[in-house]
Amino acid sequence: MSRHVRYDSLSKEYPSPSNMNIPPIYSSRSSYPTFLSFHETARLQLRAATRGLWDAFRWDTVIRLVASDAEIRSNIFKSLLLNFVSLASIYFFDLLLAPLSQGQQKWLHRNVGWFYQVLWLLPVVGVSFYFNSSWCTVIAKRTITLRHGSRATVPPPSSYTGILNSIATSAYRVIMVFTSIIVSFALQLIPVLGPVAGFIFLCWVDAYYCFEFIWIARGLSLSRRLRHLEERWAYYFAFGLPSAALCMWGSSLANAALFALFFPAYIIMAMHAKPQPIDPYNPSGGETLQHPSPYIPIRIRIFAPVTFLNDTIIRVVSIGSRTAANLAASGGNGGSGSMNSRHRRTLSDSVESVEEGAGTESLEMNRLKTRPEPAERPASQAKATSRVRLRGRGESNRRKLD
Predict the structure, then answer these.
(1) Is 291 helix (H, G, I), strand (E, B) or coil?
(2) Shortest CA distance to 237 belongs to which of 58, 55, 59?
(3) How confident is the model over 69-120, as pLDDT tens digits?
(4) What's the pLDDT at 397?
(5) Is residue 167 classed as helix, strand or coil in its secondary structure?
(6) What's the pLDDT at 280?
(7) What is the pLDDT of residue 296?
(8) What residue ranges are annotated as transmembrane (predicted)?
(9) C-beta neighbour count of 269 within 10 angstroms
(10) Neighbour tally for 309: CB within 10 Å
């Protein structure tokens, strides 16, 4: 009897396949994910890179669109004219003024290059950067409208919170431009492999800014934009390869002006591009799910140093402003300020929230919550005030009759 009881308990703890309620179609082997081989995954990534290189050389699309639309043609003409002025000014300094000012004895002759940079070159480059950004935005919106219709873009914000979000997004984009430049220069300082690593990173940065307009028009947040690029790293590396190769032969200002010269054309190419693969986790595109080989990464976190620098800068600025506000509050309250009472954002929280201006809604809600609500008066006091009002109205009516 004890043997039968012990056997029943063991059968309950470790049931045999005949005792388990498993459908006959199910098997653990079918639930295990299938992977492509290393050679097939490498071949698919090479195909994606070839597609990216092909999309980066579609000058026929650019010429056809510029010739067919007057608005795009006028903005590209203005951008070309202004960038030619910037390039001529930069090369005039690099090739003529800088060699002539070397070895001069007089103070004015030695510093003529400095005066030229401060009084002419830097203002021209700054003005061209501002106007190029506005003209490229118009070109991108017009291209999206011609290709996908007027309803393809996200409508501009009209509420107060939406305007704050757009301002925060613009500020975050400006910071991201400078941090990308810093990371590119830092990579080039690495011995032996530094220039190659800096050039590869610059290819991805150029591709990101070429596709950023269409991603913003489709309503993608920063984290989704970065994830989209990092999961299709082969395609975007090949797409940014021609523009990065064009902007590596001169000085930093000359390379920036040269990139701005070709930037509108690459925006149009990005609008007509088809990034590959469509599904990075099933690159073959078959009905059965086949993951890429584990030896080739699906996602390469290319912009992790950039987002880390962005969050560090914004965290320092927010801590500085918060400290100043707490000091002012403590000075007004007799030194009783609490600096550590608020919740601090982590790095993962600030990647998307800071860029999109998230947190402004919570700030407005906190302001609304901190407003003092009117205290409820007792019923007797309310009756007394109503009687006083009625008496006052009666006296005023009597005076009018008199």
Answers:
(1) strand
(2) 55
(3) 999 999 999 999 999 988 888 888 878 777 777 766 666 556 777 777 778 8
(4) 45
(5) helix
(6) 93
(7) 94
(8) 80-98, 118-140, 171-190, 196-221, 233-251
(9) 24
(10) 18
Tokens encoding 253: 């200002």
At 309-361, the pLDDT tens digits run 888 888 887 776 666 556 555 554 444 444 343 444 444 344 444 344 444 34
- CA dist., res. 276 & res. 284, Å (int): 11
Written as six digits, the tokens of 300 are: 């390469």
Looking at residue 225, what is its pLDDT? 92
Amino acid letter at 23?
P
Q: How far apart are CA 223 and CA 199, in angstroms?
A: 23
Q: At what angle do helices 347-356 and 304-332 cross, to 10 degrees?
A: 80
Q: Are 150 and 217 in contact (CB under 8 A)?
A: no
Distance CA 360, CA 24 (A): 55
d(CA 226, CA 230): 6
Q: Which residues, at least 6 apart from 250, have a Cβ–Cβ distance to it below 8 Å?
A: 90, 91, 94, 258
Opening angle at CA 356, ends 351 and 362, nearest 5: 100
Q: What pLDDT is stored for residue 99 in this prediction?
A: 74
Q: What is the largest CA-CA distance in the chain?
A: 114
Evaluate whether 246 touches 199 at the Cβ level (below 8 Å).
Answer: no
The pLDDT assigned to 336 comes to: 42
Residue 284: both structure tokens together: 């073959």
Instruction: Identify residue 355 by its one-letter amino acid code.
Output: E
Work out the angle at residue 177's Cα, subtended by the Cα atoms of residues 171 and 179, and round it to the nearest 5 degrees: 100
Distances (CA, A) of 304 to 172, 242, 351, 358: 15, 24, 10, 20
Tokens representing 145?
Answer: 């409208």
Sign of the Cα torsion 86, 92, 94, 95 reads positive
Sign of CA dihedral 305, 307, 310, 316: negative
The tokens for 55 are 């999309």
Tracing tokens 């009687």 back to the chain, one arrives at: 387
User: CA angle, corner 273, sides to 272 and 278, nearest 5?
Assistant: 135
Strand, helix or coil at 155? coil
Distance of CA 244 to the CA centre of its chain: 20
pLDDT reported for residue 346: 40
Question: Which stretches of the chain score pLDDT less than 50?
Answer: 1-7, 9-17, 20, 22, 332-402
Helix axis angle for 360-370 and 160-188, nearest 10°, is 140
